[in-house]
C-alpha cells in the first residue's frame, strides 16, 4: 500500500491557504448543502430540504444510522434517504452541527435535538443537550425542563434528574480503529498508530485537510498517510474526538490540541480549546494561559496583560484591592473572588464564573445596574449575565471601573459593546482615549471613523478628521451616505469640508526677498 511520510505542517508542494477571518464563537455554523460528490456519500431529506452528509460520521454517532447504512440487509445502492423523525430542517441542522462539534444549541431547538439524540441513540449529541440544559446559557426554568423530559417519553428516565435541576453526564469516548472499508476512506498514521477517518469530515473542519484531500494533490489518491504534525497519537485522538463533539479536553492535552487547531486552521476545535481555557474546568493559571496565547498566537486568550503572582491586601474602605505596582511598573490584577464577605453584596455570574461586587459602586456608574439592583430585583443577591461573551471580558470591564488600565487592541471592541449596552460612560471614555492614542496603531482612518460612528465617539471622530488634508482622503474615510449619521458627525464632516476648501483657496505664500529678484506686484 502506498504511503508517504509527512514531517512538516504542510505537504510538499501544497500552498498554505490564507488564514481565515477569526469567527466569533457564537457565529459558528456548518454547511451541509455542498453537492460535491467527493464530499458526501448520502443525501438526507427533511421536509424537502436536502442535507449532504457522510455515512461513516453519522454511523459513528448514532446506532440508527449505523443500521440504516451498514446493516446486512441495507441497500448499498441507495444514496438518498427521506427522514420522518425530524420535525423541522432547522432541528436536524442543529443535530448535525452538534455531532460535528459546533455549539448550536438554543432554547428554541434543544427539545427537538434531544428528542432526535435519544430516538437515534446518539450519545454524544445527548450529552451536549444535557450539558446545555445544565448551563447558564439555557434560560428555561426548572418547570419547563421537567415538562420537556416528561413529554419525551423515550427519555422518561431524565424526568427525575430534571426535577432536581441536575443531569448526570457520562462522557462517551470515540474510537477510530474500525478497519471496515465502508466506514472510512483514508488511514492517517501517527507514531505507528492508525486512525480510520473520513476525508470529507476532516475537510469540513480544517483548511489543511481540505487542501490535502480536495485540491488536486497526490494525497487525494493515497489510502494511507503518515502525519508528522501531531506530537503523539493521543494528541491526535483528542483532536479527532473534539471534531466529533466529544468533550475530552484536559489541562494535560489542551495545549497540544490547540496547537494542531491553529496549525491546521480548525476554527471549531480552536474555539473549544479557548472555551476550556477560559472556563472553570481548567486549573491553569492566568499566566500559563497568557504564555500559551503568545506562543501559539491566539489573541482571544490575550484579553489583558499577564497577571502577577503577588496578591495585594484588601482595602475595606472601597471594597476592592489597591492599585499596587509590580517590579515592572504594571498594575496588579484585581480579584473579585469574594474572599472577604464584608466587601461585596451581590454576585454576578458569567458562564459559571462568579464575580463578587458592590451594588452601589456599579449602580453609580451604570443606569442599567442601578435599575437591576434597586428597581427590578432588589432582593436578589445573585444575577446571571448573558451579554458578556466570557468571564474574562467582565473581569477587564470591572477592573477598568476600578481605575486599572487593562485596555488592549484585542479587548477594546467588546468593552465598547458592553459599555454601550450597560450605559457606562467611564468605560466608554477610557476606550475612546485608548483609540485616540496607542490604539490607533494597526487601524485605518476609515475603520477608526466607523468605530467612532458606531459607538458615538465624537472626540475620536474629530481626531481622525483632523489628520485629513484633501477631499479625496475625506471621501475615503466617511461612509457613502451620511444621511443617517447623528448631527454631531454631520457637523464635523461639514466643518472639515469647509476647512479643506478654505485651505485650497488661499494664495501661495510670498517668496522670500532676494536682492537679484524683482518684487511681485502683490509683495
UniProtKB/TrEMBL annotation:
Residues 1-23 are annotated as: Disordered. CDD domains: BTB_POZ (cd01165), BTB_POZ_ZBTB_KLHL-like (cd18186). This is BTB domain-containing protein. Pfam families: BTB. Residues 40-100, 184-252, 344-402 form the BTB domain.
Amino acid at each position: 500500500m502506498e504511503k508517504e511520510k509527512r514531517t512538516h505542517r504542510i505537504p510538499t508542494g501544497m500552498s498554505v491557504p490564507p488564514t481565515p477571518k477569526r469567527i466569533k464563537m457564537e457565529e459558528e455554523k456548518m454547511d451541509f448543502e455542498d453537492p460535491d460528490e467527493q464530499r458526501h456519500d448520502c443525501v438526507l431529506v427533511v421536509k424537502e430540504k436536502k442535507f449532504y452528509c457522510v455515512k461513516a460520521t453519522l454511523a459513528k454517532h448514532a446506532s440508527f444510522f449505523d443500521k440504516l447504512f451498514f446493516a446486512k440487509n441495507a441497500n448499498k445502492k441507495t444514496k438518498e434517504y427521506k427522514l420522518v423523525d425530524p420535525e423541522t430542517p432547522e432541528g436536524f441542522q442543529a443535530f448535525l452541527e452538534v455531532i460535528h462539534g459546533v455549539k448550536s444549541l438554543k432554547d428554541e431547538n434543544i427539545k427537538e435535538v434531544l428528542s432526535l439524540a435519544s430516538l437515534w441513540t446518539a450519545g454524544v449529541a445527548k450529552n451536549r443537550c444535557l450539558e446545555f440544559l445544565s448551563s447558564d446559557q439555557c434560560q428555561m426554568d426548572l418547570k419547563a425542563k421537567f415538562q420537556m423530559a416528561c413529554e419525551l417519553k423515550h427519555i422518561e428516565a431524565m424526568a427525575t434528574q430534571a426535577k432536581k435541576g441536575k443531569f448526570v453526564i457520562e462522557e462517551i469516548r470515540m474510537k477510530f480503529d474500525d478497519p471496515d472499508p465502508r466506514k472510512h476512506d483514508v488511514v492517517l498514521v501517527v507514531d505507528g498508530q492508525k486512525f480510520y477517518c473520513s476525508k470529507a469530515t476532516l475537510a469540513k473542519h480544517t483548511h489543511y485537510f481540505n487542501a490535502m484531500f480536495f485540491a488536486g494533490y497526490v494525497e487525494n489518491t493515497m489510502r494511507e498517510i503518515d502525519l508528522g504534525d501531531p506530537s503523539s497519537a493521543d494528541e491526535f485522538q483528542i483532536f479527532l474526538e473534539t471534531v466529533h463533539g466529544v468533550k475530552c479536553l484536559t489541562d494535560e492535552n489542551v495545549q497540544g490540541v490547540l496547537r494542531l487547531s491553529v496549525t491546521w486552521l480548525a476554527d471549531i476545535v480552536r474555539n473549544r480549546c479557548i472555551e476550556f481555557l477560559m472556563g472553570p474546568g481548567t486549573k491553569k493559571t492566568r499566566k500559563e494561559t497568557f504564555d500559551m496565547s503568545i506562543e501559539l498566537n491566539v489573541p482571544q486568550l490575550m484579553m489583558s496583560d499577564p497577571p502577577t503572582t503577588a496578591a495585594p491586601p484588601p482595602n475595606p474602605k472601597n471594597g476592592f484591592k489597591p492599585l499596587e505596582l509590580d517590579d515592572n511598573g504594571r498594575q496588579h490584577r484585581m480579584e473579585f473572588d469574594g474572599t472577604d464577605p464584608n466587601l461585596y453584596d451581590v454576585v454576578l455570574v458569567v458562564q459559571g464564573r462568579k464575580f463578587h461586587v458592590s451594588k452601589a459602586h456599579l449602580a453609580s456608574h451604570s443606569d442599567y445596574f442601578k435599575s437591576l439592583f434597586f428597581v427590578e430585583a432588589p432582593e436578589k443577591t445573585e444575577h446571571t449575565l448573558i451579554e458578556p461573551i466570557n468571564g474574562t471580558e467582565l473581569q477587564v470591564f470591572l477592573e477598568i471601573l476600578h481605575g486599572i488600565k487593562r485596555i488592549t487592541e484585542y479587548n477594546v471592541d467588546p468593552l465598547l459593546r458592553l459599555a454601550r449596552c450597560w450605559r457606562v460612560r467611564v468605560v466608554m471614555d477610557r476606550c475612546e482615549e485608548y483609540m485616540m492614542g496607542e490604539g490607533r496603531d494597526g487601524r485605518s482612518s476609515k475603520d477608526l471613523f466607523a468605530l467612532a460612528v458606531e459607538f458615538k465617539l465624537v472626540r475620536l471622530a474629530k481626531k481622525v478628521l483632523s489628520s485629513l488634508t484633501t477631499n479625496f482622503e475625506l471621501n475615503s474615510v466617511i461612509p457613502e451616505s451620511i444621511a443617517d449619521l447623528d448631527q454631531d458627525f454631520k457637523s464635523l464632516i461639514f466643518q472639515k469640508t469647509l476647512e479643506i476648501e478654505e485651505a485650497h483657496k488661499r494664495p501661495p505664500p510670498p517668496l522670500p526677498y532676494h536682492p537679484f529678484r524683482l518684487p511681485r506686484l502683490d509683495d
